Write the structure tokens for this entry.
Amino acid sequence: MFIISCWNIWGLNGPQKQKNVQFWAQKNNLDIFGILETKITAANITSVQATLAPPYWQFYSNINSNPTCRILVGWNPHKLQLICLHSSPQWLTCEATHASLPHPIKITFIYGHNTPAERHALWHYITRESSLNTCIPWLVMGDFNAIMQTGDRIGGNIHWPRHQDDFVTCISQSALLQVPYTGIKYSWHNGQHGCNTIQKKLDWVFDNSCLFSSWPATNATFEPRSISDHSAMIIRLRRPNQHSHSPFKFLNIWTERSDFLTTVASSWQAPVIGNPMFQFTTKLRRLKSVLRKIHLQFTNNITDRVARSKTTWEDAQFYLDAHPTSDNAKIIERSSAAQYLQLCKEEESYFKQKSRIQWLQLGDKNTSFFHKSLLHRQVRNVIHNLQDDNGTLVHDPEDIGKLTSIYFENLLTATHPTLNTDITDIFPNTITEDYPLRTLTATGLPWNARVADIITAGQWDFPRDVPTLNSCWNSITFLPNPNYEDNCEWKGQTSGVFSIKSAWELLRDKRPVNNMHQLLWFKGHIPRQSFILWLAGLERLRTMDRLHSAGIIQNTSCSFCGTYTESHEHLFFECQIPRSVWQMVNARANITWPCMSWKNLLQWASTIYIKKSDVQHTIARLLLSTTVYQLWYERNNRVFNNQHQNTQNIAEAVFQQVRMHITAMEFSSIIPASICDVWGIQQSPTNSSPNF
């Protein structure tokens, strides 16, 4: 679980507020917090940050885009890493990463301007980012200075200006979902009294469907106001419980209990604080717990309950039979009978709901509808007439029976032409599992016969009464040896010993070896990079041309040049930017590659760089896979995150990643001095592992 918070503090220059913020962060064990409307100047921001959290905490702010700091974000680097992606006077977007997170999470802290015209830039930014973050978990939170509907305010101007629709339109177009919350609804209070009091819900927490699917138990809490006119928001990113209960299923038999409506009303009427959707889901969840208790007490293991109740009733009957004049025995017998019949009814209802729900939906109780349904099925299945070979319709039931009998006699007794031997070869010889046993019975041997039963005086004594087995007997060309114990031999290899490798060689579909595997799977390869190179070699990356052919997108322009169609051939390395990166990396690594198409380049490399122990060949393969991986990573950043790097930075990232990987590898031979000079490493004097 990760805890993120946001709070419009309404000024943070005073030491008392700074102390309160520090206490608030410690009390709620926050991992990330965003402070809005801090009013801190650039000269004081460092000193203020030192008072808000422990010394190891780190901070981002939008002080560079505004005279005073409007948004200040702090995070605990011991729990996660945070990178600032975008900032402006109205927003600050970060990317949070952690080893336990399957994907990075984007978090946007919002502090909207007070005037509608100034907020247009904010609505445009949210709409644009939503289209880029469809596959990335995204959390949007803060003071939007806007409301969604008239019910989000109390007091003040009752009119609804047209500009207030901008916020609603933005959230709708962005496909953002409001995070379920508890606590204060009207997060802002103007501090006035009486009829001058105005309350509004200006602070909101939204997420996209990707975050909701990854963290379905996420919820928010709006705390009561304290040192600010705004409520603090605390968001808890929770994953679903891995050890969840079995799925809940409503049983119709519960509705027939006399206390059902009272139980439901008692659970439902208990108050819940929060927005309407949160109230509804909380009440449903609470009601399920109540109904589960009813199930455990009355309808769980219904079949066993019926069996035990029947035994109790039978015992009561025997007791009454032994004490016919006892009033107590009569009461016990009648009570046991009533309980047994009630449980039988509940059992019938339970199994009907599992197998014949359509009848229960109609409210049927095995009365007229049930019998009419059976009658309808019987009438529908009656054969009213048949047509003979002459085209005459037969209606009489006896004639229909005779015609049916004649038809099946002709069908089952007719002679059929012999199948072609080529066709019969496709059918297995073994008709049933018992067929070999029947063949064994024909020899006169028992079904549990052993090999010793067909050995007499050290010679084979095969039964000769079954001609079909003669070929099998004749195939045995060796004599039995009674001096040695029998043993099993595996024909998959000459040693006669079974191994998984030999079984695999017998079963697998053998195909010519693809030389490209030497570029992908070699000692020291980086798995994720080799995987991307493998997909690129098969042309299975989701490039724009493939997405267009699948009908997913319309624009096929390359994300690097924006001119040509993005394909594998264009991306590796016909496009100017990828080609420049490729040339810069190879020039710096002092490796020469021919100028040819993508497919031809892979074929050439798979025949040239094939030596397993050659350091230069290993580096060349690493260079290819790392370059392809980094280019694909940069392409995705441009498409989904609207982030761009120049060619020098991309090439430097490739070079440094390969260099770092080389220093961690162990080579069987000494690395040449020329390679050490190129990569800025030095050979270890004790082994073949390079050092910085």
Summary: The chain has 25 helices and 22 strands. Residues 518-691 form one domain. Residues 630 and 654 are 7 Å apart (CA to CA). Confidence is low (pLDDT under 50) at residues 355-380.
